[in-house]
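I'm stuck. Please check this protein.
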Amino acid sequence: MLRITAENLGTARYCDGMSRRSFVQLGMAGFASLGLADLARAREVSQAIGTPQRKTSVILIWLDGGPSHLDTFDMKPDAPAEYRGIWQPKKTKVPGIEVSEFLPEIAKQADKFALLRSLYHDNGDHFTAAHLFLTGRDGPNGSSQDGHNPNLAAVAAKLAGSRTAGMPPYVAIPFAASVGLQPGYFGGNYLGPEYNPFLAGDPNVPNYQVKNLALESGLTLERLSQRAELRAQFDKLRRDVDLNGTMAGMDKFHQQAYDLVTSPRARAAFDISSETDELRDHYGRTELGQSALLARRMVESGVTFVSLHSGGWDHHWDLQPGYDKRWPEVDKAVGALLGDLHDCGLPDTTLVMLCGEFSRTPKMYNGGDGGPAGSKGTPGRDHWGNAMTCLLAGGGVKGGRIVGATDARGERPVENAVTPADLHRTVYHILGIDPEVSFLNHSGRPIPLLDGGKIIRELF
């Protein structure tokens, strides 16, 4: 196990006590997975049931910690005050669709997205919920936090690869993290580290460059090629003792790194400075704003799956100051992304998803957390996996519609209830991936990609 302290995650803690100053963990054992022949057959089946000829991609904007559905996309203005919350609903350009008043830019794009208001999984543990939402399966909890299954993006990287040669199949901006764990449940797990995301860093920093695309000082492409040949020869000496497939996995890892460094397409795609100042300002000069712009450049250049990380959404108290600060950044970034994808002719081939691991309790708390009212700050909301909303746009999803509904207080779905497994199956359908594929885990046991689930046809 290689463990590297990650200093760029900050030191703020989630309510579970996990610091965002976490660890990059790279497991070197258990690379068991599909054989080449099985993988080829899986791709053929995927092409038969899906739409790979469209070369679809996904941008997942992950609000780590869980945003409230009642304060954003499923407002209940007629509910009692302690439920309906602080903000007022705002009409969008689509009659019948309202969002929170602090989302004016997203409201302008209502004809381009659908609101899935009936998503649920009934779990309030950060780790269990994040693993379930990101991998489609139960597993860890606050006491045992290790991931058990590959992220849906890692599966896409393995079964679909990149849409264009010379580009990584899976990119995380600025990094990949779930509940403070990096890459957490965004990793390849038993598929191997070669299916972990390529980390792009923060594109909002001055003179942004991707370190992993730069050559070492004094190293030319010719010398890099010689190094690759030498390593390949050396690796042959150890091939006969490689019993668990580790060397094969590392070969792919090194080959991907080599391909990226030598790819003019990759270097051009990550050059966000080539965008106009006007467009960059439109997205917002924030980490999330510039990450969203870079994500558009990624899918435009052939990346299959891009994840954007936005942390700090665990608002048990002080909900209003937290949202007043954070949601305008999200609003600006997402509104600009949806409009820009449309202007670039990419909406049909790019699915955008905005969500977190769960929502927040419909009833607000008084800011006391068990103590005197206000002792912990202004009111907030606790964990709630019984009902949540996911915004989806593009990739064949029909905009300007609401799918599903919750009850009058936003406590549970009452119409067209759907689960993370349903959402995963829908995403795989959009990507043209066969959801019936099985992989071998660390123990050599075949694990189906999904445990049930159905395509959410109402989105299309």
The radius of gyration is 22 Å. The longest helix spans residues 319-343.
